[in-house]
Specification:
With about 160 residues, the chain is of the alpha/beta class. The chain folds into two domains: about 5-120, Phosphotransferase system, mannose-type IIA component (Rossmann fold), CATH 3.40.50.510; about 125-160, no CATH class. About 50% of the residues lie in helices and about 15% in strands. The protein has helices at about 10-25, 40-55, 70-80, 95-100, 105-120, 135, 145-160, and strands at about 5-10, 30-35, 60-65, 85-90. It has a four-stranded parallel β-sheet, sandwiched between helices. Its main location: cytoplasm.
Length: about 160
Amino acid sequence: MAGILIIAHAPFASALRECVAHIYGGLPARIGVIDVKPDCDPVEVRAFARSEIDRLREGNGAIVLTDVFGATPANIAQSLAAEDVRVLAGVNLPMLVRAVCYRTTPLATLTEKILQGGSKGIQELDSTTPQNPCALATAAPGTADPASSASADRVTAKATT
């Protein structure tokens, strides 16, 4: 299982970790965060990031997710890139969810899944856009798709425990 390290402008990394804990009803194992503050010493943060990667890395390697390409957190993250450590910029919540869901797959496949999740998670919504089945499960009686209601209820129940 690949370890996951999020390096981002404070407090974004911690906020993403809290969101994934909310979604999964608890924090999945081997997820670390580094919130980079405006007054940080990049050399010190880089050293801490290396120790975090060593702690989180497993047989499948590690994924480092960072926010803005070219910014200090991304520059720190990029210094961690190695054969068994992939660094991806532009992190969003769909990317992190994919990272958690597919972390047992080979690192190359995991990287592809994360990037796909990030881009597929960015959509313009209007009143005609189909809703998520989980959201439909809480709609008025008779408006939800019966085929998706049972699975939506399971997801909703898990997310609220």
